[in-house]
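Schema walk-through. Below, the input block comes first and the output block second. Nothing else is stored per chain. Lengths vary across the set, and this one has 263 residues.
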Amino acid sequence: MPKRKQRTRNVFVKIKGLITREIRYKDNDKLLTVVTAERGRLTVRARGVMRLRSPLASACQLYAYSDFTLFENKGRLTVNAAEPAELFMGLRTDAQKLALAAYIADIAEKISDSDAENGELLRLTLNSLYALSERAEPLELVRAAFEMRAAKVAGYEPQLDACLRCGNPPEAPYISPALGGVCCRNCLTAEENTDVLIACPDGVLPLIRYFLSAPLKRLLPPVGDERLIEDVVYVTERYLFSQLDCDSKLLRYYRSLRLPFTR
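--- output ---
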């Protein structure tokens, strides 16, 4: 007797996720990239979401954190129903905040794995977007905290307690983004320069240590020194990009909306 073909099992999946990217697909659909805690990064199709009065429109917009009911068939996911849990409305009326949110979402997407648990990264990203949307902390402080904690979540926590070369507690330390930690002044070689090693002014390493160890809900300490924020974000940006071996057009766009950065 001929073998019967096995029927593909269609299932409904309930899951919460943050939309980090949207692409218009055909006339009225969207392809969404959704970062979730349980299944990492997903690609989801939202049918008819571009139509006027679509019930999915609010929950399926960029940077919405939503409750999804997804229909899964042959490995493809389609939105069956969705309700917004948080829309971060404060982002949508401020061009600088929206540009920084785009950069944060892009980094979260880059380091998010498919079909893997992703809870800490999702919480970090949501907390950062909430801080941008609803709180009054300096934008660059939010960025620095996100960049350094994201590096840790991705498995690139820097070594800060001892020199990478001599192993002693560093005095007048420099941080090496490429090597992943600090070096003391005595271990510098003649050919090394600021493209390789970055001097850490007073206050920078304690603030970075705080970003790495603080509970996510208290990740942003009160910092009134604008110069310290500039110094620390100079380090966190270069450290993250060196470890991820990437660049970001979205960060350049965010910078274009700010006053020129000088050091």
